[in-house]
Each structure stands twice: as structure tokens, then as C-alpha cells.
Amino acid sequence: MKRIALMAVALVVMFAMAVASASAAKIVIKGPAPFTASSGLSKLSTEGLPEIECKTSSASGTLTSATKGEVLVTFHECATEGKKCGNVSAGTIQTKPLDTTVGWINKAKGEAGVDFIGKTGEKTNGSEAEFECEGLAVKVKGSVIGKSTPTNVMATEGKVTLVGKNGKQEIEKFEGGLKDTLITEASLLPGSELPSAQNQTATETFTPIEAKKGTKTVFLPDNVELNTVNNPATPEQGRCQKAKHAKYTDSNCSVIAAEKNGVKKGKYEFEPIS
Questions:
Q1: Cα torsion angle, 22, 23, 24, 26, sign
Q2: N or C end: fewer C-beta atoms under 10 angstroms in the chain?
Q3: DSSP string spanning 89-145?
């Protein structure tokens, strides 16, 4: 009898675990994707001006749609030629709120990136940041494109890499788009608009999502990806999640499933952020 009782208890526990697992599997994450970001050394190089270096940066932002987002970046321990640069405090520079847009860097190779531009004005009139370096006034305008990695991989982290030197950015425009460059105005050279380049690698970490599991509140990792397969017209920010009769066979939504009698045989669907 004791053995039968133990087996009964085990079956109840297994059933409870199966129900809990099924309940968790049904949680579908939707909506915007908030994130934080950080980087090591960042450099702003401008033709005709001394280079500005910041030892680290931090940021917070949100992916708000399939192609758009917003972010605010703070650079720490910034200086040029021994002079501290800042607008929050000496050595600390904070950008104005920035809009982000994803696009193709090289569509044939599946390379995608993100363009950063200030919310407060047009590319030629607005500024991304304004600060002083112990008497030297600096205004950075325009926009800058970084390469996003990885693509087509669901993950809680991603990287954006900006590469440039001597006032020239490696990636200056998206395929089929207008030229996007940074421009710096400095009181050292009044009235001049000088081409600039940003050199930096930032790691984005997506914020866990609060959800209900029965009566309990749980925090689920928010796995997000930049997908280059779902929409040939543009890369898309979103999440690959389990679904019946879905478009994709894999959990990264990168392999399109075959159809039989008009019914999709995949197990995963890509949900663009909205």
C-alpha cells in the first residue's frame, strides 16, 4: 500500500509540473522591448579638432516597433587633451533623446544596422549632444549608423558597433537611403561644420518581462532578435515564439517551413514588435 501511495504522490507531482510547464509555454510576450546598454571606450573624431574620448557609456531605451526605437545615452569620464568634457557634470555627457531606425547595410549578405538621430530636430538642424570641454563649446549634429549583431538569433543581448576614424564613418548610409553622417560644430572654429565619426561597441540587454503564472508574478527573460528573413523589404525587430501551423521550423524564425495542402508545417511564428 505504501508503494502505491508513493506512486500516486509521484503522479500528482508530475501532473502538476506538466500543467505548470504548459501554462508557462502559453505565455506569449508582446509589446515594446525595453533595454539597457553599456560600452567601454568611446571616441569622437572630427576633422581639424582633437579627439574626444569617454571611458564608458550607459544607456536606457525601448524598441517601440518593428523598425523604430528610442534611447538616451550617457558617456562617462570624457575628455580631450586633458580637458574634461560634460553637460551633466565635468566628464559626463548626456545625449538628447535619440530615435533609432533599423535598415539594411548589405541586404545580399543579410547585414543590418541601426541609425541614431536626435528627436529634437532634423538631421541638418537638430543636435544629438551639446557640451563643453573647459571653455570649448561643442555641438554634435546629424546621425550615425552602427552594425547590429547577431541577426536572426533570439537572445537577451545584442551588440551595436560603430566604426569610424579621422572624421569618417565606416557606414554612412543604409542601402537605398540618404547619406547619414555626424557633424560637429566647435567654438574653436566658429561657423564651421566638420565631419565626425563615432567609434564604439555597445551591448544591449533586454529587460525581463513581468507576467502572471497562475496567481504568481514571474519575470521572464525577454529574448528579442533583429530578423532579416520575415520581411524582405526591411529588417524587423521582434520575437520568435511557438505557434501552430506557423511559418518557421526553428526557434530563431530563420528557416521557412514547407506547406502541405495550403497548411504551414512550422512550429514558430515571428512577431514584430508593435
A1: positive
A2: N
A3: BTTBEEPPPEEEEEEEEEGGGTEEEEEEEETTS-TTT-EEEEEEETTEEEEEEEEEE
| Cα–Cα dist 23/172, whole Å | 47
Q: Are 199 and 182 in contact (CB under 8 A)?
A: no
Amino acid at 44: L
The whole-model pTM stands at 0.86
The rounded distance, in Å, linking the Cα atoms of 28 and 240 is: 10
Q: Report the share of the chain in percent with pLDDT over 70.
A: 88
Per-residue cell: 103:
535598415
The predicted-structure confidence for 145-180, as pLDDT tens digits, reads as follows: 999 999 999 999 999 999 998 889 999 999 999 888
CATH number assigned to the domain comprising residue 67: 2.40.160
Residue ranges making up the domain that contains 74: 33-206
Which residues lie across from 58 on neighbouring strands?
A: 38, 74
- Positions of the chain with pLDDT under 70: 1-26, 120-126
Query: What number of H helices and E strands is found in the chain?
Result: 1, 22
Tally of domains in the chain: 1
Residue 248 lies in a domain: no
- Asked if 72 contacts 62 with a C-beta cutoff of 8 angstroms, the reply is no
Q: What pLDDT, on the 0 to 100 scale, is given for residue 2?
A: 41
